[in-house]
Amino acid sequence: MKPIKRPKRYTRRIKIHGRVVGGRPPFEPQKETSADPKAPPVRKAIITSDGLYNEVAAAEYLGLAVRTLQNRRSRGEPPECERHARRVFYTLEALDRFRNDGDE
What we know:
By secondary structure, this protein is of the alpha+beta class.
């Protein structure tokens, strides 16, 4: 017959001459390993030679989150964007207009 694997049982923690004896081993947090392999790739801020800002660059310029710009765009709110193929870009004029109007 195969022996049954039982979880390790810990003894009570007691203090003997100022030292703690028995009980569970002290908690040690896991060390940080490399980046999460399931995490999406980091998107970079891009400003084209035409002066168009991608979502990441526009969000940094305005001090907003990329997701905020995406939500505003889906609702049709400013700042106005331009689409080239599937990519979304913002002009500097549109970003300045949005910033100066205080429409957040």
